[in-house]
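PROTEIN DESIGN WORKSHEET
SECTION A - STRUCTURE
LENGTH: 128
TOKENS:
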């Protein structure tokens, strides 16, 4: 009996968790876009700091190896560390309704209709 009760509770909970969520509001979408931009910038900063620390460790290694009289090979060519700069987020501008084509006139016909049936046959006049 307990197993049946537990299983039914789990089934109800899983069905509730699979329910469709409402679409995000524009404010929530903007916050999510800004959070994604901030995360990408943080990744670039971390890569920059890692690059600088690797350069520091390599310089220290070559300095101690030279002082000890060990022979070292030249370092492999690597791109310079790129500083991402301060975080700056500019939200994309909203498209005006006119640019979306909401009020644009219909285009002119460039070809005849695709059927040979006359319009009067397909759309008969209403009888009053």
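SECTION B - SEQUENCE
RESIDUE ASSIGNMENT:
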């Amino acid at each position: 009996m307990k197993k049946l009760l537990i299983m039914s509770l789990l089934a109800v909970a899983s069905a509730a968790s699979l329910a469709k969520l409402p679409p995000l509001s524009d404010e929530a979408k903007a916050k999510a876009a800004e959070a994604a931009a901030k995360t990408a910038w943080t990744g670039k900063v971390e890569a920059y700091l890692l690059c600088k620390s690797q350069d520091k460790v390599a310089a220290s290694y070559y300095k101690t190896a030279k002082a000890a009289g060990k022979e070292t090979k030249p370092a492999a060519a690597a791109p310079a560390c790129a500083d991402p700069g301060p975080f700056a987020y500019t939200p994309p501008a909203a498209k005006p309704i006119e640019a979306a084509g909401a009020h644009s006139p219909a285009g002119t016909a460039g070809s005849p209709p695709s059927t040979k049936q006359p319009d009067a046959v397909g759309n008969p006049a209403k009888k009053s």
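SECTION C - NOTES
The mean pLDDT is 82.
The radius of gyration is 33 Å.
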